[in-house]
Amino acid sequence: MIDVGDERFEDMVVRALDSLPPELGRVMANVAVTVRHDAGPPGLLGLYQGVPLTNRTTQYAGVLPDRITIYRKAICAICRSDAEVVDQVRRTVIHEVGHHFGISDARLHELGW
C-alpha cells in the first residue's frame, strides 16, 4: 500500500483524462469526474453512474450530469509504488469512461480494461 496525497492523486486523474484521445473527449457529454478520498464501496476503484451515451434518446434532457467517481484510498490500497498508482488511475479512468460510452464490464475486461 502506498499513500498518495489528495492533490497529487487528483492531478493523476486529470492527467489520465487528458491522455484520452481528443475525439473521445469531444463526444463525452454531461459527465462530471470526481475523486473521493475515502475507500468507497468495497471492491470498487471507480464507479460510473448515469445514462450511457448509447442509451440516450431525444428524450434525454434536463438531467443532472452523469458521474464518474474515482476512489483514492481503494486504488492506493492495491498499489505499492507511485508508478503503480499512476497506471491504476489511468486504467480506472479509462474503464469508467468506457461505461459512459456504453461498454459493459465484460467487454471492458475482454479489452484488458
Number of helices: 5
Please estimate the helix content: 40-55%
Tally of domains: 1
The N- to C-terminal Cα distance equals: 21 Å
Spans of at least 5 consecutive residues whose pLDDT stays below 50 are: none
Class from helix and strand fractions: alpha+beta
Strand numbers in spatial order across the main sheet: 1-3-2
Taking the sheet with the most strands, its summary is: 3 strands, mixed
Strand content: 5-15%
**CATH domain fold name:** Zincin-like
Highest CATH level, the class: Alpha Beta
Strand segment count: 3
CATH architecture: 2-Layer Sandwich
Report the average pLDDT across residues: 93
Shape: globular
Task: Output the radius of gyration.
Answer: 14 Å
| Helix and strand element order | HHEEEHHH
Written overview of the protein:
The structure is a single chain. The chain has 113 residues and is α+β, with helices and mostly antiparallel strands. It has one domain: Zincin-like. Helix content is 44%, strand content 14%. The chain has 5 helices and 3 strands, in the order H-H-E-E-E-H-H-H. The protein has helices spanning 6-18, 22-27, 72-77, 82-100, 105-110; strands spanning 31-36, 46-49, 66-71. The chain has a 3-stranded mixed beta sheet. Helix 1 (6-18) crosses helix 4. The relative contact order is 0.23.
Question: Which terms would index this structure?
Answer:
113 residues; alpha+beta; Zincin-like; 3 strands; Metallopeptidase family protein; Zincin_1; Zincin_1_sf
